[in-house]
Automatic annotation (TrEMBL):
Localization of this protein: Cytoplasm, Cytoskeleton
Record's subunit section: Interacts with microtubules.
Gene Ontology molecular function, alphabetical: microtubule binding
Family membership noted in the UniProt record: Belongs to the RMDN family.
InterPro entries registered for this protein in UniProt: RMD1-3_a_helical_rpt, TPR-like_helical_dom_sf
Source species: Steatornis caripensis
Protein name: Regulator of microtubule dynamics protein 1
UniProt-listed Gene3D superfamilies: Tetratricopeptide repeat domain
Name of one Pfam family that matches: RMD1-3
One cellular component term from this protein's GO annotations in UniProt: mitochondrion
Taxonomy of the source species: Eukaryota, Metazoa, Chordata, Craniata, Vertebrata
Swiss-Prot/TrEMBL keywords: Cytoplasm, Cytoskeleton, Repeat, TPR repeat
């Protein structure tokens, strides 16, 4: 297992998405949570490639969720298993409609929070909690009506919070995450400053996002 993990981390660091998936999918029946959450991540990364067809994207999204779920079952104390379960659950929501996506939102947040409890230094998870706050602050009125229907008493006070408060909360998450660790973090810091009507600081962070070295397709999109 250690050898496979070492090889997998090397391929991930090298951006060899397809090779990484082919390596890890051979171990899909493993009982090792470390292998399984990496397989969930690799499946998701493969789904994100522009060369992957729409049908393959859907299939990979559901596969990734199954691998992440299995990783959690094998080791509930693995922070990465919680993180990737939440990410993959969010991805599947894109295929199942807005009611499912909103219904899953609080489960997703719980797993992100559990991941942070298990590893408070993981910048990616802190960033993702920030994005969660942003998505609720930006929720259109018709989605809020769906949410109100689904939750007579919403599980958190998010639906009652003023947008500016949510954006302030987002800012603290993004900044705590180590602002320069990820191109999308820089982008959302800029967008958050725009929402807080601070164009000078928005320009600073958006410029950093623009100048960030583009290693992945997502970096280029940012």
């Amino acid at each position: 297992v250690e050898e496979v993990l070492e090889q997998a981390d090397y391929l991930y660091g090298s951006g060899e998405t397809e090779k990484l998936y082919r390596l890890l999918v051979q171990h899909k029946n493993s009982d090792d949570a470390e292998l399984l959450w990496r397989l969930a991540r690799a499946s998701r990364d493969l789904a994100q490639l522009s060369s992957t067809s729409a049908e393959e994207k859907r299939q990979l999204a559901y596969e990734a969720l199954e691998y992440a779920k299995k990783a959690l079952e094998k080791n509930e104390s693995n922070f990465a298993a919680h993180k990737w379960y939440a990410i993959c659950l969010s991805d599947v929501g894109d295929f199942e409609g807005i009611k499912t996506k909103i219904g899953n939102a609080f489960v997703i947040k719980e797993h992100f929070q559990r991941a942070v409890e298990l590893n408070p230094k993981d910048a990616t998870t802190i960033h993702l909690i920030g994005i969660w706050c942003y998505s609720f602050a930006e929720m259109p009125w018709y989605q809020r009506k769906i949410a109100a229907t689904l939750f007579a008493t919403p599980p958190t006070s998010t639906f009652q919070e003023h947008a500016a408060h949510s954006h302030s909360k987002l800012f603290s998450c993004l900044y705590t995450a180590d602002p320069n660790f990820y191109s999308k973090n820089l982008l959302f810091l800029g967008k958050t400053y725009l929402k807080l009507n601070n164009k000078k600081m928005a320009l600073l962070w958006l410029s950093k996002a623009k100048e960030y070295p583009a290693h992945t397709e997502e970096d280029k999109q940012v």
